[in-house]
């Protein structure tokens, strides 16, 4: 019994590795998973105590469980069988497609990462780049929102910073889930975004099966009370003006809505504006049909050069933040009340009729969003200088015209944000910011547009053009 056995070194190492793996898998991993789950559950309990809208069980369920629930949903299976019959493909192959779509869409929300890490990073980034302000909030309307309602923040889309900005500003009320475009599906960004509760959307997919999977996920999340954030415009504004609404996600939410059901859907209009949108010139370039598409390497180089220039300015203490970023929260819109007022039931009638009803809702929501878009210094100054044309205007004239615009906008119910409650200071901020970017040329107190910069001034003026149209008789 005391005979020795000789093994090759590679086999001994392999056996040792297998034994270590078995020990970790069977002895250490279960205890570690229990400990981490306990920490996460404790964190969720603490977070729920301070949130106005508690995190629903659907949002914190295991991702694999949600994927299984989605792919075996009756309407998804029905759509898969229909595609299999139409295409002649095996049912298993079509269900494999469904599984791929579900894995692409379903997030992997991590409450600990969202609240302990993600929001802290978002807050630091936003406050590093901007003077962040909440300008107006219908506090009475927001306080009256039923805690059992499915809350949907609907907002204008000016910058990819919108995700960061709104996410941390509503952190005391809810953990929101965004619909994110395919631009973010790159490693490791997509893993981080999924863990923050966002789901990916193919904006222009023509595959009915994909649309059905997406539709059912959004409906499940809405029915479960998951707080969501939606950009009705469907993408970033190119010229600074608000775009007509796209109906896809709103239609999915409304399609099966029961006005007499237990859970209402409440839309909260959110207006966003910036003194500087980081992507402004790139967005304007997309308006030019003759502009050549830039390569990925060019985009990366431009981004790195932009970051490097700003870091160098920080090191030389010559860097300034990009002005003000302001968010306003308007009066909530109850879908239950809206359907009662308009005598609408989205479940009745055909698709064309439902789309007309959803379009009417979307336009009402866009109007509500437009009414709470903040009026910021750069938008106001850009409006004045654009109206002055190539001749420009003196600082005194700019202040006089801007003050008149402030007054007419306020009288029309708009929400100007006036830094330090000082109109003169606000206008100086707008002039100084545009002059630093060489958009305006200042000569002895006289300001005029730099050559070729009219489109950029128009971009910022367009942010409040709809408010001025309402204010002017």
Descriptive notes:
The chain has 473 residues and is of the alpha/beta class. It folds into 3 domains: 48-278 and 322-372, Glycerol-3-phosphate (1)-acyltransferase (3-Layer(aba) Sandwich), CATH 3.40.1130; 281-320; 377-471, Arc Repressor Mutant, subunit A, CATH 1.10.10. 55% of the residues lie in helices and 11% in strands. It is built from 20 helices and 11 strands. The protein has helices spanning 9-50, 57-60, 63-71, 74-87, 91-105, 111-129, 139-143, 161-169, 189-195, 208-223, 248-255, 280-285, 296-315, 335-342, 351-371, 377-388, 395-411, 423-436, 454-462, 465-471, and strands at 131-137, 150-155, 177-180, 199-200, 228-230, 265-274, 324-329, 333-334, 393-394, 440-443, 446-449. Strands 1, 2, 3, 4, 5, 6, 7 and 8 form an 8-stranded mixed β-sheet that branches. Helix 3 crosses helix 5 and helix 11 packs across helix 15. The mean pLDDT is 87.
Number of domains: 3
Radius of gyration: 26 Å
Q: Termini distance?
A: 105 Å
Q: List unreliable stretches of 5+ residues.
A: none
- Number of helices, counting only DSSP H or I runs of 4 residues or more: 20
Mean pLDDT: 87
Question: Architecture of the largest domain, according to CATH?
Answer: 3-Layer(aba) Sandwich
Task: Count the beta strands.
Answer: 11
The biggest beta sheet reads:
8 strands, mixed
CATH class of the largest domain: Alpha Beta
Query: What is the CATH topology assignment of the largest domain?
Result: Glycerol-3-phosphate (1)-acyltransferase
């Amino acid at each position: 019994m005391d005979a020795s056995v000789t093994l090759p070194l590679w086999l001994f190492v392999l056996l040792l590795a297998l034994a270590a793996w078995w020990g970790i898998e069977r002895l250490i991993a279960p205890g570690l998973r229990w400990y981490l789950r306990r920490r996460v559950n404790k964190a969720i309990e603490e977070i729920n105590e301070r949130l106005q809208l508690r995190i629903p069980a659907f949002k914190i369920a295991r991702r694999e469980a949600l994927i299984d629930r989605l792919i075996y949903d009756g309407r998804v299976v029905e759509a898969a069988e229909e595609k299999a019959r139409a295409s002649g493909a095996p049912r298993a192959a079509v269900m494999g497609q469904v599984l791929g779509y579900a894995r692409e869409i379903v997030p992997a929300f991590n409450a600990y990462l969202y609240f302990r890490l993600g929001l802290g990073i978002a807050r630091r980034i936003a406050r590093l780049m901007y003077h962040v302000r909440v300008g107006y909030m219908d506090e009475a309307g927001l306080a009256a929102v039923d805690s059992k309602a499915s809350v949907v923040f609907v907002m204008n889309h000016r910058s990819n910073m919108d995700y960061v900005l709104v996410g941390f500003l509503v952190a005391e009320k809810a953990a929101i889930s965004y619909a994110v475009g395919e631009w973010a599906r790159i490693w490791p960004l997509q893993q981080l975004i999924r863990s923050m509760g966002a789901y990916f959307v193919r904006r222009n997919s023509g595959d009915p099966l994909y649309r059905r999977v997406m539709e059912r996920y959004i409906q499940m999340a809405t029915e479960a009370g998951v707080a969501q954030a939606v950009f009705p415009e469907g993408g970033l504004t190119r010229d600074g003006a608000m775009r007509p609404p796209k109906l896809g996600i709103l239609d999915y939410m409304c399609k099966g809505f029961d006005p007499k059901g237990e859970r209402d859907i409440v839309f909260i209009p959110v207006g966003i504006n910036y003194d500087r949108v980081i992507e402004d010139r790139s967005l304007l370039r997309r308006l030019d049909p003759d502009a050549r598409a830039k390569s990925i390497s060019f985009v990366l180089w431009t981004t790195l050069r932009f970051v490097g220039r700003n870091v160098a300015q920080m090191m030389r203490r010559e860097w300034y933040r990009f002005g003000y970023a302001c968010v306003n929260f308007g009066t909530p819109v109850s879908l239950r009340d809206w359907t009662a007022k308009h005598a609408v039931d989205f479940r009745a009638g055909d698709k064309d009729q439902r789309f007309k009803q959803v379009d009417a809702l979307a336009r009402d929501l866009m109007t509500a969003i437009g009414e709470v878009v903040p009026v910021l210094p750069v938008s106001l100054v850009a409006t004045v200088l654009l109206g002055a044309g190539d001749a420009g205007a003196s600082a005194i004239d700019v202040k006089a015209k801007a003050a008149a615009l402030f007054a007419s906008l306020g009288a029309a119910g708009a929400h100007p944000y006036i830094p330090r409650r000082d109109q003169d200071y606000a206008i100086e901020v707008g002039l100084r910011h545009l002059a630093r970017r060489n958009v305006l040329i200042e000569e002895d107190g006289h300001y005029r547009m730099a050559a070729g910069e009219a489109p950029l001034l128009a971009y910022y003026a367009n942010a409040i053009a709809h408010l001025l149209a309402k204010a002017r008789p």
